[in-house]
Amino acid sequence: MSDLKGNNILEKMMHEAERCLFCFDAPCEKNCPINLPISNFIHMIRNKNFYGAYEKVRESHPMINVAGFICPEEILCQKECIRSKIDSPIKIRELHNFLTLNFVKNQNLSLTPYKYEDVAIIGGGPASLSCTFFLRTLGYKTHIFTEEDIGGIPFTEISNDRLQNEIVEKDIDFIKDNFIYELNIGKVKTIEELKKDFKAIFIGIGLGDETKLEIPGIDKNGVFYARKILRDLKNGKEVFLGNRIGVIGGGNVAFDVANSLKNRFKEKEVFIIYRRGLKDLKCYPEELERAKNLGVNFYFQSSPIEIVGNDIIKGLKVSQVSLKENEREKRRSFELIDKSEFIIPLDNIVVAVGQKIEDGIFPEIEKESGLIKIDENYMTNVNGVFAGGDCVNGGQTVTKATSEGKIAAFKIDEFLRRSE
């Protein structure tokens, strides 16, 4: 527990809880993907029932420690806070974090006895762990099949300056100790091999591959893809890079790479290179501000054309683009401007233009736009096989993935109990 009195944390959090209006329709909760009982736990804080508030959060979200550090509250719960019409929104994530850092109770729970079938869960990230969490509370035996230990992106790729592994491990240990019946490390090759033993299967494999950038010179030494860089930085490995590093992309992964590199190598110049404009960025506002504060530089409206250099990279040739509004898309469309090419001098380039599921994985499962296709019940085209998380939504927030795992768990329960 932190020094609540010494840092005036208790006083600050009590003041924040007292600002809550306790809206009848709780728009903050409606804009939370997993529908965390926000007004309920804030009311408990207000009444100094801190452990009760912690329990309320703990039973509603399988990864509360992770969410307390990286959930983008500015685009979710706090965005809809009615208090902002008076002065400023309630600092919901800070209140959440206040509980998880200071009022942890016994993590060994008394759960419903096992009373239903065994369910297979493919994957070990947030969606799969959430599905496991809620299926176990319903009385199912959950068998996780994953290529590496559980935790997913929060454990393997989100930078340590944003999320320490010890925080992720709190959630992982809690789930391992209470919710997983059997953990199997290894690759599942086909769905059919699992269907022999399980009536229901959930796929939460995330996005295991990256979208390739197809321009001349992409195979030169010194060009990297984002996930390798993030994993190496996360694991404290030596990363050998030159003094000028360009990161191609405008999403959260691109910014996580740029911010992590700048934070590790403060003496190096790091550039975000993006083919659209500032208002078209897909990153969270918090990450953009962090990049500015760290000293990351930007090239907007610059579309990569070619990586130049012979044995070593000399730079990235880009074309300037013009942007125009598009009624069918939120982001503006772009067109290359003739004879506007120029070269950005660079020593290394990191490509962060998107992720996708692995090519050829589970061919019996129908895909759409490179993602697993599901119906309104979260079921795939194969009866009894469900899916959720990044492999379905294309990569969003951890809380979004956990919400889909939660929904899928209840859909699986409906599917298995429908004949009773």
The rounded Rg comes to 23 Å
Question: What coarse outline follows from CA principal-axis ratios?
Answer: globular
| Overall SS class | alpha/beta
Order the strands across the largest sheet as they lie in space. 3-2-1-4-18
**What's the number of helices?**
15
Q: Which band does the percent of strand residues land in?
A: 15-25%
Q: What summary fits the major beta sheet? A: 5 strands, parallel
Question: What gap, in angstroms, lies between the N and C termini?
Answer: 47 Å
> Helix content range of the residues, please?
25-40%
Mean pLDDT equals: 93
Residue windows where pLDDT falls under 50 for at least 5 positions:
none
Number of strands: 18
Defining traits:
single chain; 420 residues; alpha/beta; 34% helix; 18% strand; globular
Q: Outline of this structure?
A:
This protein has 420 residues and is of the alpha/beta class.
What's the topology here?
Elements: H1 9-18, H2 27-30, H3 38-46, H4 50-58, H5 64-70, H6 92-102, E1 118-122, H7 126-138, E2 141-146, H8 153-156, H9 165-178, E3 182-185, H10 191-195, E4 201-203, E5 209-210, E6 223-225, H11 226-234, E7 244-248, H12 252-264, E8 269-273, H13 285-294, E9 297-299, E10 302-308, E11 315-324, E12 333-336, E13 342-345, E14 348-351, E15 355-356, E16 367-368, E17 371-372, E18 385-387, H14 390-393, H15 398-417
Parallel strand pairs: 1-2, 1-4, 2-3, 4-18, 6-14, 7-8, 7-14, 8-9
Antiparallel strand pairs: 5-15, 10-11, 11-12, 11-13, 16-17
